[in-house]
Design goal:
Mean pLDDT: 96
Largest sheet: 7 strands, mixed
Structural class: mainly beta
Radius of gyration: 13 Å
Helix content: under 10%
Strand content: over 45%
Number of strands: 11
Order of helices and strands: EEEEEEEEEEE
Shape: globular
């Protein structure tokens, strides 16, 4: 099992940057596909970015392509989300999640961190 703790959220202005971090417990972090999700008020949770176990492959939703970068440091058991050129529509609670080998869904979630972008 893995426990996830996000940090790095906050209140920023449009155009600013933030870096979210997600620290994972356990010795098998590198065996998990990791992802960042977000949930805005009144909206369903959506995936933002996914990164492969070894960090060589990443995918993004169109809304954040070119602005957000997901990365991971398996030696530090941490996944990051660098968010640049933030927009008010990026305002949401951001969650990191882990998908174990052979799993079909993300079975482990952090508690979330609030990102608020003012115009």
């Amino acid at each position: 099992q893995v426990q996830l703790v996000e940090s790095g959220g906050g209140l920023v202005q449009a155009g600013d940057s933030l870096r979210l971090s997600c620290a994972a417990s356990g010795r098998t972090f590198s065996s998990y596909v990791m992802a960042w999700f977000r949930q805005a008020p009144g909206k369903e949770r959506e995936v933002v970015a996914i990164i492969s176990r070894d960090g060589t492959n990443a995918n993004y939703i169109d809304a954040v392509k070119g602005r957000f970068t997901i990365s991971r440091d398996n030696a530090k058991n941490t996944v990051y989300l660098q968010m640049n050129s933030l927009k008010p529509e990026d305002t949401a609670v951001y969650y990191c999640a882990a998908q174990a080998i052979s799993a079909t869904n993300y079975g482990y979630w952090g508690q979330g961190t609030q990102v608020t972008v003012s115009s």
